């Protein structure tokens, strides 16, 4: 062996593990890594404008590839800025590794410049957080990081890198590429599942989440369609199966179809495959309760620690999602009669997801989504952060085979634009749309500079109601007509996009949207449609006036 710097050893391990892209804001604390990347053409280095954007892009990349998204930031403010993205990856079960340049080993415990105890800081929101003290052990730590980030319930790993350790020149033995670890389900448990299905009258499946993959989507859709079982997508997991599947029943979360909610309440068998059944998916643990009296729950999850943690499962199955879905797809039981509820649920969703024009609304977003459906292909990737604006796309957009939705289940704002940049760089042959609210967009709007620098081809639909709309909605429910801290004064968003070299147009009526979309789709690069909407239409389902009337009763 020959000696290498710690930075060189680390980058070599990333190459071995198949990393082809990292996201970063550079820092002096990991100059040795940046120097090694200079000579590593196999890894594309994407320089962002704020560490929050770095972490969100890494999370999005992990969602799209199934491999850990890789982020590098510096200590102190760099790491704390990135912590929001680590939290997203943790709650969304996304494989990700965040590397943090740290103070020199000899300066620790002195509250040195930008010093933080990173293993302690990140421990509650990471699967594993550690510090590499010896450059000789970098291969060991990287191997473990990839295994932890991808095994069981995927999630984020955080590794602190003392700057002097990265400069050390040592001999170190490389580790091989981490092999896949996929646990097959117990055939006895699968047989028990089919026996439960034969006893059921109104089953329903809730899918998407940890370890979900195109393979799982394909096989589960085949299985559910064969037996007529309605498929509901967990919150912001709407691309878990192609929405054209004849038993797709819509999404859960905020603002779902009331008929789907009732169908789940009435179900005698709930088959949850992938989701944790968190607060958003279950409407505050009420749609499916932790003890679910009168219902049988089959919970399939890749992490044994999740099974039984919140929900009592009548049949818990620990398995890789792809392995489980393929086994039940190939498991033919001639005694199981096909249910009719799947196709009925799909018809209900088709009706629910078709926009109905609203009277008296100057710019009605429902027909705007319908115009986008008509003009964009099924493989379009739609990215959004948090806000009521997203409800129009969650309800009316029809998602194709994954990955076609990048949206944080943790409900973080500012996610959509960084995610869309990551998507545009990962899939340059596919349309990418960022849907953002005005408050949401300005939390990471500077990443338009990253999009411009790397020639990202993306369309932004920016919904501007001059308000933090979701909070305003809750405010009107609890304290009607007492507006406080939710009003916004915004810039000219179209001019802002042009300042980054993009094309932009402002629309204020429903009729103006489709021509603007046509013009945008003729172009490449950054394109932004600035939609000025009225705060009165606070969501796709209600208005400020209706909220106030209800609150006064």
Describe this structure in words.
With 553 residues, the chain is of the alpha/beta class. The protein folds into 3 domains: 4-170, 3-Layer(aba) Sandwich (Rossmann fold); 187-350, Rossmann fold (3-Layer(aba) Sandwich); 355-552, Thiamin diphosphate (ThDP)-binding fold, Pyr/PP domains (Rossmann fold). The strands form 4 sheets. Strands 3-2-4-5-7-6 form a 6-stranded parallel sheet, with helices on both faces. Helix 20 links the parallel strand 19 and strand 20 (526-532). Helix 18 packs parallel to helix 21. The mean pLDDT is 97.
CATH level-1 class of the largest domain: Alpha Beta
Terminal CA distance reads 78 Å
CATH topology assignment of the largest domain = Rossmann fold
Q: Biggest sheet: strands, sense, closure?
A: 6 strands, parallel
**Derived structural class:** alpha/beta
CATH architecture of the largest domain: 3-Layer(aba) Sandwich
Helical fraction equals: 25-40%
Tell me the strand percentage band.
Answer: 15-25%
Tally of structural domains: 3
- Runs in which pLDDT lies below 50 for 5 or more consecutive residues are none
Q: Radius of gyration, Cα only, in angstroms?
A: 24 Å
| Contiguous helical run count | 21
CATH superfamily of the largest domain: Thiamin diphosphate (ThDP)-binding fold, Pyr/PP domains
Strand order across the biggest sheet? 3-2-4-5-7-6
Mean pLDDT across every amino acid position: 97
Per the principal axes of the C-alpha atoms, what is the gross shape? Answer: globular
Please provide the count of β strands: 20
């Amino acid at each position: 062996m020959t000696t290498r710097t710690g930075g060189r050893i680390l980058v070599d391990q990333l190459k071995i593990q198949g990393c082809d892209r990292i996201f970063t804001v550079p820092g002096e604390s990991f100059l040795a890594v940046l120097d090694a990347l200079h000579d590593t053409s196999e890894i594309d280095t994407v320089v962002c404008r704020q560490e929050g954007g770095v972490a969100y892009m890494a999370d999005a990349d992990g969602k799209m590839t199934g491999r850990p998204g890789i982020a590098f930031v510096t200590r102190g403010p760099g790491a704390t800025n990135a912590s929001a993205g680590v939290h997203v990856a943790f709650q969304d079960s996304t494989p990700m590794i965040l590397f943090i340049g740290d103070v020199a080993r000899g300066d620790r415990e002195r509250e040195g410049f930008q010093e933080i105890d990173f293993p302690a800081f990140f421990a509650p929101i990471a699967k594993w957080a550690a510090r590499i003290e010896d450059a000789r052990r970098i291969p060991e730590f990287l191997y473990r990081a990839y295994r932890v980030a991808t095994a069981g319930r995927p999630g984020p790993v955080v590794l602190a890198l003392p700057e002097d350790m990265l400069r050390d020149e040592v001999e170190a033995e490389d580790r091989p590429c981490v092999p896949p670890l996929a646990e097959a389900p117990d055939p006895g448990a699968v047989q028990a599942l089919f026996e439960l299905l034969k006893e059921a009258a109104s089953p329903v499946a809730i899918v998407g989440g940890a370890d979900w993959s195109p393979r799982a989507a394909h096989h589960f859709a085949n299985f559910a369609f064969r037996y007529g079982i309605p498929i509901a997508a967990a919150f912001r997991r709407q691309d878990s199966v192609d929405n054209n599947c004849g038993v797709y029943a819509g999404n859960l979360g905020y603002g779902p179809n009331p008929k789907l909610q009732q169908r789940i309440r009435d179900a005698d068998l709930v088959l949850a495959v992938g989701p944790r059944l968190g607060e958003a998916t279950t409407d505050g643990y009420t749609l499916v309760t932790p003890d679910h009296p009168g219902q049988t729950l089959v919970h399939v999850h890749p992490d044994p620690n999740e099974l039984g943690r919140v929900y009592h499962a009548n049949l818990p199955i620990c398995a890789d999602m792809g392995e489980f879905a393929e086994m039940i797809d190939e498991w033919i039981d001639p005694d199981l009669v096909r249910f009719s509820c799947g196709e009925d649920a799909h018809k209900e969703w088709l009706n629910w997801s078709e926009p109905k024009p609203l009277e008296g609304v100057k710019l009605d977003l429902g027909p705007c989504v319908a115009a986008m459906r008509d003009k964009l292909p099924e493989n379009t990737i739609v990215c959004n952060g948090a806000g009521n604006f997203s409800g129009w796309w969650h309800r009316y957009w029809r998602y194709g085979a994954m990955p076609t939705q990048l949206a944080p289940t943790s409900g973080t704002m500012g996610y959509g634009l960084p995610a869309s940049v990551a998507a545009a760089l990962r899939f340059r042959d596919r349309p990418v749309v960022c849907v953002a609210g005005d408050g949401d967009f300005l939390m990471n709007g500077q990443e338009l500079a990253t999009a411009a620098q790397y020639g990202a081809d993306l369309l932004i639909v920016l919904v501007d109601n001059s308000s933090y709309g979701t909070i305003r909605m809750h405010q009107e429910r609890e304290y009607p007509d007492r507006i406080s801290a939710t009003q916004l004064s915004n810039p000219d968003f179209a001019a802002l996009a042009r300042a980054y070299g993009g094309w932009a147009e402002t629309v204020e009526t429903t009729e103006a949207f489709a021509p603007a979309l046509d013009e945008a789709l003729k172009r490449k690069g950054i394109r932004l449609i600035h939609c000025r909407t009225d705060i009165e239409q606070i969501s796709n389902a209600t208005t400020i006036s209706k909220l106030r009337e209800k609150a006064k009763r």
